[in-house]
Design a protein that fits this description.
Blueprint (H helix, E strand, L loop, with lengths): L1 E6 L3 H16 L3 E2 L8 E6 L4 H19 L5 E6 H6 L2 H4 L4 E3 L7 H9 L4 E3 L20 E5 L1 E2 L10 H5 L3 E2 L2 H13 L4 E5 L16 H9 L6 E5 L8 H9 L6 E3 L7 H6 L6 H14 L4 E8 L6 H14 L3 E6 L7 H5 L6 H24 L5 E9 L5 E4 L5 E5 L9 E9 L4 E5 L1
Parallel strand pairs: 1-2, 1-3, 3-4, 4-5, 5-6, 7-10, 10-11, 12-13, 13-14, 17-19
Antiparallel strand pairs: 8-9, 15-16, 15-18, 16-17, 18-19
Helix pairs in contact: 8-9, 12-14
The chain binds S-adenosyl-L-homocysteine, iron/sulfur cluster and FE3-S4 cluster.
Length: about 425
């Protein structure tokens, strides 16, 4: 049977798709890139915002049509949508539903479904996601590795703790065994993943921490860069900052969502810091890691957000000078505290206006920060080739550089590139 995946949402879902595809391949299924060639299509879904949910609902509708025309045989839904919607997805046309904590059983679920049974499998089986589980990876030089499943934070707007469950860290020895295996397959860069990646190890109560994991991982000679995502502001430890500062393989990149610059809104969001505390964290990181690149996420139009709250967010953005900022319009998520107790009272036009204003401000900041790169030589790991024959890759601060080269380059190769032109987006240059 030929299986095609369509993946939505965050890097964790990307990683989960690689695991499900790896398991299926190992169990004798075939994985295909093109939907047209598939017998089975699995949507690995996201529900972080209503828009994400609408997107896969419409994809599911399309698949139901294809199935009606006899072009595909089975439709599966995986990921956070499965956890949230469960059985209901069967009535929308899915043949099987598999939760993001149950992916280890994908082959069995698919086999049962192929006999005509309607399967909904949502059990927490994350303890079985070990280093030896096969993974299907098209890119060899870089690997995502989920090190902590779930989230305990319960920010009032967020669906993730309801879909991914409570935090569960993988034992460090298991993660290191996976790194070892990846290195043998040619991996030189790893990204450690967690919705709150700094919480890694806390539940194990054996001294395991993200900082220690980075140190241990850096001992593999072949590993060149180590990334980690996403950080919760108050969980970043001094030990972690120190390791990033001192370990040359640790990427100088922190993704720390702030969500708002208004202390009143932060309280309503159940984010446990003030804007001043966030800014002092930014300061602390920059004083110890002078070339640190700090990026963030912000939600605009949270319930009751006033012009004054919005101005406070603008002030924070101007002071923090993020290297990158993901902006999202607030979207009520069923079952969350915010959706139950706060009315979504900021008009749509106001939300969009605030979003656009922040986009403009951030664009200006990006242009200024990128301008400082002009004429500099940066070390880039080659990630791919553009349609016009240029190459692209990123430096250890996560800056994307598009560059030309007289010689043919291999993916995963490290090269020195002189930056010749900068924009608010990528940098452009030429290989030295
Ligand atoms: N664990 C991370 C982010 C998880 S979700 C953190 O602590 O911030 C990724 C991003 O989606 C969030 O940073 C937030 O900006 C956005 N997001 C989450 N729930 C949302 C909602 N209900 N409406 C709009 N954006 C949301
Ligand atoms: Fe969601 Fe908050 Fe957990 Fe991030 S820390 S995943 S925003 S509950
Ligand atoms: Fe979406 Fe789930 Fe990730 S809701 S953002 S796929 S954790």
């Amino acid at each position: 049977m030929r299986v095609h995946f369509k993946t939505y949402g965050c890097q964790m879902n990307e990683n989960d798709t690689q695991i499900m595809a790896g398991i299926l391949l190992h169990e004798g299924f075939e994985i295909v890139d093109e939907l047209e060639l598939a017998d089975v299509v699995i949507l690995n879904t996201c529900v972080v915002r209503q828009k994400s949910q609408d997107k896969y609902h419409s994809a599911l509708g399309q698949l139901v049509k294809l199935k009606g025309q006899g072009k595909i045989k089975l439709i599966g839904v995986a990921g956070c949508g499965s956890n949230l919607e469960g059985e209901k997805l069967l009535t929308l046309g899915a043949d099987f539903v598999i939760g993001s904590r149950s992916i280890v059983d994908v082959a069995e679920v698919l086999r049962r479904s192929a006999t005509g049974e309607k399967v909904v499998h949502l059990e927490d089986r994350t303890h079985l996601l070990e280093a030896d589980i096969p993974r299907f990876r098209k890119v060899k030089h870089h690997a995502w590795i989920t090190i902590v499943h779930g989230c305990n934070r319960f920010c009032t707007y967020c669906i993730v703790p309801y879909t991914r469950g409570r935090e569960r860290s993988r034992p460090m020895q298991d993660v290191l065994r996976e790194v070892e295996r990846l290195v043998a397959e040619g991996t030189i860069e790893v990204t450690f993943l967690g919705q709150n990646v700094d919480a890694y190890g806390k539940d194990l109560k054996d001294g395991t921490s993200l900082a220690r994991l980075i140190e241990e991982t850096s001992k593999f000679e072949q590993i060149k860069r180590i990334w980690f995502l996403t950080s919760y502001p108050t969980d970043i430890t001094d030990e972690l900052i120190e390791v990033v500062a001192e370990n040359p393989k640790a990427a100088k990149s922190f993704h720390i969502p702030v969500q708002s610059g208004s202390d009143r809104i932060l309280r309503m969001m159940n984010r446990r810091y003030t804007s001043a505390q966030f800014l002092s964290l930014v300061e602390r990181i920059r004083s110890q890691v002078p070339d640190a690149s700090i990026s963030s996420d912000i939600i605009v139009g949270f319930p009751t957000e006033t012009d004054q709250d919005h101005r406070e967010t603008i002030n924070l953005v101007r002071q923090a000078r993020f290297e990158r900022l993901n902006l999202a319009v607030y979207s009520p998520r069923p079952g969350t505290v915010a959706a139950r107790f706060f009315s979504d009272d900021v008009p749509r036009e106001v939300k969009v206006e605030r979003l656009n204003q922040l986009l403009e401000i951030q664009k200006q900041i990006n242009a200024e920060l990128n301008g400082a790169y002009l004429g500099r030589v940066v070390e880039i790991i080659v990630e791919g080739k553009t349609k016009d024959g240029s190459y692209y890759g990123r430096d250890i601060r996560n800056k994307i550089v598009i560059f030309t080269s007289d010689e043919q380059l291999n993916l995963g190769e490290t090269v020195r590139v002189r930056v010749e032109r900068t924009t608010a987006g990528p940098l452009y240059g030429r290989k030295e």
